[in-house]
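Following up on my earlier thread - several people asked me to post the actual chain instead of describing it. Fair enough. Here it is, all 295 residues.
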Amino acid sequence: MSAKSPSAEILGLGYGSLAVLGFSLSLPAARVAVVELEPTIVGLGRSVVAAVLALFVLVITKQPIPPQRYWRGLIIAAFGVVLGFPLLSAWAMQRLPAAYGGVVIGLIPLATAIVATIRVRERPDRKFWSASFTGTGTILLFMAISGAGTLQIADLALIGAVVSAAIGYVEGAKLSAHLGSWQVICWALVIVAPITVIPVGLSIVQQGLQASPLSWAAFAYGSIFPQFLCFFAWYHGMHLGGIAKVGQLQLVQPFLTLFFSGIFLGETITPLMLVCAAIVITCVAVSRTAQVQRS
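Reply from S.P.:
Thanks for posting it. Predicted structure:
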């Protein structure tokens, strides 16, 4: 059992922070786009655009096709971060404020840590788990209070998005050690492109593509950054700094999403949201000092 070196961990946290900054605008961008575009177009359409970019990069750099032993992991990662998370979160954003969704997405770090414990046998210490469960409990309490004590269908969609993201993050980070960080997301996008093209095409035929420049700008952002470029930094950061510890950075994402939702969407930021965000940020600071062993 060995821990990550301090220099690798710091560099990994740096890459992870850049990715989280880009991810934090994902829900606000989706919230803008789904006002005029159908959720399937927003959720899966951005994966189609990102797949075109990924294929271009793979061809230009003359990347070899991954060995067959890695395809299972690529498919799992793809279903998590290319299909599951984008589609479920876009559907939820048609029904919930981006600020609310941003806080719920803060459940991802705990889910990621649990999956990492199972898949790559990372072993965080008690301080890590205490901080993670405290942050997660705060978010669940926020959901209960904000939702009048009941879970709505859109809440369940967000929880499904959380689980999908966690699985995709861990599988992608695991493969990064063998294939490279940006190669993983590129191949994941390309592999499921035939699946995403069909529902997107049907939605375009039924709903059309009439939308304002603002909606298209939001769609473009989601396609290029959260669905593509951010994963370059995210998978590389997890590979360098450890999946569980770098994954904890996403506890900060709710605060950033709240900030961007207030600025760009004019959504009301309640005192409860700010208190919850402050608590989870404190949890990130505590988990940063925890020890995570890896077999």
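Residues 45 and 200 are 6 Å apart (CA to CA). That should answer part of your original question.
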